[in-house]
From TrEMBL:
InterPro entries noted in UniProt: DUF2207 (IPR018702), YciQ-like_C (IPR048389)
Lineage, top ranks: Bacteria, Bacillati, Bacillota, Bacilli, Lactobacillales
Pfam families referenced in this protein's UniProt entry, alphabetically: DUF2207, DUF2207_C
Protein name (database record): DUF2207 domain-containing protein
Keywords: Membrane, Signal, Transmembrane, Transmembrane helix
Keyword match Chaperone: no
Residue stretches making up the Predicted membrane protein YciQ-like C-terminal domain: 307-564
Amino acid sequence: MWKSMTNKIKKIFRLLLALSLTFLVLVFAPRVQAQDVDFDITALDIVADVEASGDVHYQEIYTYDVNYFNGMRVNKDYGGHTLTNYKVGILNSETGQVDYLKESNNQTDNTFSYVDNGREGTFTVYRRTEDQKVKLVLEYTLDGVITNYNDTAEFNQKIVGSAIDERLDVTARINLPGKVANKEDFRAWGHGPSNGQVYPKTENNQSYIEVEVPSNPSNQFVEVHAIFPTSLTPNNTNVVAENKKENIIETENAQVEADRKAHQKNQLILLSIAAVFALLGLPMTVFLYFFYFRARKKANPQPVHVPDHVYSLPDDVSPAVMAAAVLRPEPNSDDFSATILDLARKKYIHLNEIKKEKRGFLNFGTDETLEISLNPQAPSRDLLQKHEQYVLDYLTPEEGQSQTLEDISERISHHKSYRKQQNSYWTRFKNNAAVKGERLFGPKPKIINALFALCVLGIVMTVIATFLSLVSFWPQMGWQVWVAIMIWNLANILALIVLMVLVWKKPPMTTQQDKMTKEWQGFANMLEDVGQMDMRQVASLPLWDEYLVYAVSLGVADKVIDAMNKTYGAEELETLSMPGTFYSNPFYINQMLRNSVSENIVSAAPKPSSYSGSNSGGFGGGFSGGSSGGFGGGSGAGGF
C-alpha cells in the first residue's frame, strides 16, 4: 500500500516538475517576433538597348527605401516574347559596380530564383534588409521587340507596368543601334500620367528616346511608342510586309487631338456647373451653411472643454506629424525647417551662422548664411522617424561633413540629378509625415474639401456672373437694378468667405479630433502669449528649446525667441542646441532658415502636373492618354 502511494506521489512530483519547467521556458525564453515588412520603391531607372536583330536588352534599377523586408520580387510581363540572358544584382553604393547574385531555389540570402509561367517571369530576390537603401539591378533580353514594316520600324511597350503599388520617379533611355539622319523618320510618343515627357534625341552619332515621369502614381503604366528607320534593325526577323508609318503617326496624332478636346470638354463642364452655382446664388449658400452646421453637430454632439492655454506638449509627436494632424493637409516648408531645428536639438547636426563673400555683379562685402554640419557623435539614426531621416538625408553633403544652405541652393540650380534627389527627399518627408498625421488624427470628413471647393467655385462664378450681367445689360438697366445686383452678389461672396473661414477654423470633426485640435491650439496660444508670463515658472530652459521647434510650425517662433531673450542671459542660452544668436534674434530662424529652406524646396520642385498632350507629330513633348497597345502592362515590383 505504502509502495503504491509512493509511486503515485513520484508521478505527481514528476508532472509538477515538468509543468514548472515548461512554464519557466515559456516565460523566460527569448521571444521571436515577426517584424513587419515596410519599404518604399522610390525610383525606377531604365536603360534599353535596341539591337540590330530587333531584340532589346534592358537594365532596370529599382531603388528601395527599406525599413525591413526579406527580399524583393519583380514580375515581367513579356507579352509573348522570349526572356533570356537575365542577371540579377545589387548596385554597390561605394564602388558603383553591380554585385551579381547567384540563381538558386534554396531561398538562401543573397540569391535569386526565376519562375516562368508562360505569360510572365517572376524574379524573387532573397536579401533580408533593415534600414537601408537597396538598388536592385535587373538585366535581361527580350527577343523580337521591334517590328520591321516596309516603311518604318516600331517600338511599342509599356516599360513600366500597372502592377507596382508605389508612387515612384521613372526615367528611361531607349538607345537605338545607330543614328537617324532624317528627323521625320524618328518619332516618339508616351502614354500614361499627364506629367510624363518623352523626346526623341540624337547626339554624337547616337539616336535615343528620353523618358521622364516624376512621381508616377501607383498602378500607373508608362508606355513608349516610337518609330525609326528599318535600316537600324537590318537583321530583324520580326517583319510585317505592309506600310505602317503614316497610320501610326495619324493614330497617335488623333490621340493627342482627342486629349486636347477632352481637356476642353472638362473645362466646359466645370464652367457650366459653376455658372449654375452662380445663378443659384444665395439660396445655395444658405443650403451650404445648413449642411456645414448639421455635419458639425452630427460628428461631435458633445464638444470637450479645453483651457485656452495649455502649458505642456499635448502629445509626444514630431512637429511635422503634429502639423499634418491638426494644422494642414500635409506638412509645408515651415515644418521641414522645424524638423531641421529638432535634429539640431537631438544632436544629429550642428547649426552655425557664417559669413560668406557676396557673389555676382556689383555685390560687395559679406553676407550671412547657415552652415549645417553632421555630428560625428550623433545618436543612432534608427532612433529617428522615417520623415526625420529624409530631412537628415536632405542635409547630408555629397562630400565632407558640412555645407551651407547656399551650397544646397547652388547645387539645385546647376545639377539636375541633385535637384531630383532633393525634391525626392522633400516629397517623401511630406508624404510620410502626412500619413502619420492622418493616422494620429483619424480620417477627416470628405465634406471639408467639398465645401471648400464649392465656396471657391461660388465666389469665382459670382464675380463672373456679375461682370457678364453688367456688360450685357448695362444699357437696359437703371442704377437701382445695378445696385441691387451688386448688393446681392457681394452679400453672397461675403457669406461664402465667412463659410470658408468657418470650415477652415472649425471643420466638422469627432470628439477626439476636436479635443486634439483644441489642445494644440491652447499650446499655440500659450506660446503666443508667453511674453506675458514668467517663462521660468512655466517650463525649464531645455523644454523651451524643445517648444521653440514646435513654435516654428505653429507660426509663433518670434514670440518665443523674444521672450527667451528677455528672460534668460546669454550664458544660459549658449548651453542650448543652437548658437546663442539664434535665441537672441528671430532673423536667424525666420529669414536665414525658413526663407532659404522654402526657396530651395520650390526650386527643386518639378513643374506642376497638368495637361500636356502637345506631342503632335511625335517630335517630343507631353504624354497622351489611352494606350498604343504596347505589351508589358502586367509588369510589377514589390517586396516581402
